[in-house]
Amino acid sequence: MVSPHGIKLAVHLISAYFGDIVSKVCECLLRKGTLSLQQVLRFTELNKENATNALLVLIQHNCVQAFSIEQQGGFMEQPKMVTHYMALHDNIIHLMRFSKFLAIISDEFGQECMEIFEGLLQHGRLSMNQIVDRYKDKHKSHTSEENSTAANVAHENFNKLAQAHYIERCPAREPYLESEKEDDTAGKKKIAKSKMNDPSQTLEARALAAATPMESIRFLVEADTFTNVAPDENTKKTSTTEIVGEKRKKNFLEPENKEILWRVNFEEFVRHFRHKCCITHVTRCMDNVAGIVLSAIFEATRRDETKVKMEKTVPLPMDRIYEEAIKREEGRSLSLERVRDSLLQLGCEVAIIGIDETYSIDLKKIIDEAQAQEVESVVLKKYGREAYRIFRLLLQSKRLCETDQGKLQRIATDFPLWAMYFIQLFIWMATFVDKKDALKILFQLWNDDMLHMERVANEGQKLESLCWKLIKVSVWEQVLDDMYHAALNLKLRLVHELEQAKQILRKGKSVGDKVLEKRKKVGEKWEVLDSSLMILDDAIMQFHDF
């Protein structure tokens, strides 16, 4: 489920990039869930042409995934294939990270690769031939020799991006999902049963899995992708001819025109930012050596990570970690013992495989600590230092501490299920916060959905106490929604400042000092707002993508 302000931010981004009609269709899908075209028409009240074009734009820019599924007809009616559309909220939010993606490509590969990558960001999906033509036009290649040179350069840089997994083959445009009735073999029944028991295997999850190319060809650049040969007439006829009533069970990984389309691989960038977040956190909380060692491990295991949210790093032998660490200029002075000490400092698990000493680092713990620090910082800025101490106490504690040997022990005995809750009396004793102030802060945090409160009563002694608990999942969701809200406000403010800048520019260049001063102030505001948005987006990724 997407939070309310997460939807509003996504709708604003789509409106800014593609206009109001496309954003209306996108908002409908985000709020209503997966819909067919007829349902989209009914909810948006758009005509069929506008709705269809809007969906095609969203698919082209990887913001919507279509899939077809068999739908049972009415009485005496044959089943029919119906196309459904689902919005991809994560991909929509990535629209405001394009400048970050470009900076990574520029730093790692240079200007020429960045030009190819920029084309994919602008157009969503492109074939190899389209990428080459765009590169030729940009570099104004006129002669056949210049064209050939430009094409070779474009092809070489394209290969670099594919090998680094920064681009990938596009998913199938409209995969076909088989109904459960068609899974009649024993093996298919076992698979279907396992997916039914897995709560993550929703219809949308099945559609995304069906659309995703196999890992073996996902980043494969074949020789025939670089060709200018047009399909012949027989191919066109075959691709456009269908037998009426026959179900489509073809390979949806290949488009009908046999032309492979490519897009930006957002997962690789999320992995890059996740690694950066972990390195920054351990460097700040431990030392530079710990950051160097962790960076070396990430570099050594980059191709072995099977998913973005890896809870632990792939086990590596000590020699491999040390070899990777001393490749860096800042790590050349490190000794083997210093690297081993940093690994122990990182709290990594030591596993013995054969005679090799291997290490694996708990990344989930690092991310959890970074998230906790971020939330604590938010509480400190919003509610003050006393609220910060109370919140931190509730966040770090796992059980009921028996500070008051009388009241707390009686409640712990009478209400053993409340072992996870803090009694009001203990909170102000442990945090050195005045009793009245502590109660006021607790109620303020509870009112803002940062805490959960229950009243616990002892019937025999007519004793009632307020018990407080920090439910981490709900608090983290609330913080993320607040971040989406803040990002939306920053985007709206940036739009306002842009309008102000346009009004100043309309006055012409030959103006006085006052107008020049206004231009300077608007430029400074823009830089501050844009920088703040990028920092806030780092926090959003930390809570949602990592």
From TrEMBL:
InterPro entries: RNA_pol_III_RPC82-rel_HTH (IPR013197), RNA_pol_III_Rpc82_C (IPR008806), RPC3 (IPR039748), WH-like_DNA-bd_sf (IPR036388). It is found in: Nucleus. Residues 173-199 are annotated as: Disordered. GO terms for biological process: DNA-templated transcription. This is DNA-directed RNA polymerase III subunit RPC3. Residues 156-335 form the RNA polymerase III Rpc82 C -terminal domain. Pfam families: HTH_9, RNA_pol_Rpc82. Component of the RNA polymerase III (Pol III) complex consisting of 17 subunits. It comes from the Eukaryota. Residues 8-67 form the RNA polymerase III subunit RPC82-related helix-turn-helix domain. GO terms for cellular component: RNA polymerase III complex. GO terms for molecular function: single-stranded DNA binding. Keywords: DNA-directed RNA polymerase, Nucleus, Transcription. The keyword Transcription applies. It comes from Lactuca saligna (Willowleaf lettuce). Residues 173-187 have a biased composition (Basic and acidic residues). DNA-dependent RNA polymerase catalyzes the transcription of DNA into RNA using the four ribonucleoside triphosphates as substrates. Specific core component of RNA polymerase III which synthesizes small RNAs, such as 5S rRNA and tRNAs.
